[in-house]
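Dear H.,

Thanks for agreeing to be a second pair of eyes. The structure we're designing against is below in token form, covering all 228 positions.
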């Protein structure tokens, strides 16, 4: 790591969506005060570097398409397949109408997708077009309602909803208890004999509130395992 680092507030400024802006300098200060393990981790890793994941669509629909494509893949593999998908549509995310108009087998072969993921993309497109998923409302909904909206789409489970909240909507207080990388990081950093279950994770993470998202990102950095 570089010998000198910018202060967190200089490097990152305010991190958050219009509904809940987060001053990272305040978040880091809270985590340092609240939890000695987090304090040691932040000292080890440095307070900066919580940048957005590269190559992500800025719009809600594109982010959800990218999420489906990247499920259970390494970051490199997910980017490769998403690029193949967008190349089929002139270098952009296909619209819902374009997904449904495309031949599923041809789309699968062109992008290197599984049949299941093609069906998930079609489910997402159907929910957007029939109005059952109103993407423009997601910014204004509380976390639990965003989750309920997303998991109604086939292929978007709780983990995907948590990632959308954390990395796209930038909600500050999300704890994805089903994430294997996070479970490993907590086990290693908190000296647990086995991977923690959700109840144990909730207990450990209680002092992190209202900045559990930020704490999780430090723990992922410790493993160099930010989700794809």
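And this is the sequence the design step returned. I haven't edited it by hand at all.
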């Amino acid at each position: 790591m570089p010998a000198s680092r910018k202060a967190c507030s200089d490097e990152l400024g305010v991190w958050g969506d219009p509904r809940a802006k987060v001053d990272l300098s305040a978040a880091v200060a809270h985590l340092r005060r609240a939890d000695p393990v987090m304090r040691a981790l932040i000292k080890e890793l440095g307070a900066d570097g919580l940048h957005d994941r590269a190559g992500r669509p800025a719009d809600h629909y594109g982010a959800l398409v990218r999420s489906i494509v990247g499920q259970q893949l390494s970051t490199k593999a997910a980017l490769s397949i998403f690029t193949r998908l967008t190349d089929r549509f002139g270098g952009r995310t296909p619209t819902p109408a374009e997904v449904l108009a495309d031949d599923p087998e041809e789309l699968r072969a062109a992008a290197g997708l599984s049949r299941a993921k093609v069906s998930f993309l079609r489910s997402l497109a159907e929910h957007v077009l029939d109005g059952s998923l109103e993407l423009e409302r997601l910014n204004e909904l509380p976390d639990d309602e965003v989750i309920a909206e997303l998991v109604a789409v086939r292929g978007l489970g709780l983990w995907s909803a948590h990632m959308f909240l954390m990395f796209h909507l930038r909600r500050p207080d999300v704890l994805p208890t089903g994430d294997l990388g996070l479970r490993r990081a907590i086990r290693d950093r908190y000296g647990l004999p086995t991977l923690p279950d959700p109840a144990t994770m909730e207990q450990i993470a209680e002092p992190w509130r209202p900045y559990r998202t930020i704490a999780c990102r430090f723990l992922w950095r410790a493993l160099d395992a930010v989700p794809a």
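Two observations from my side: DSSP finds 13 helices and two strands in the chain. Residues 127 and 133 are 5 Å apart (CA to CA).

Warmly,
E.
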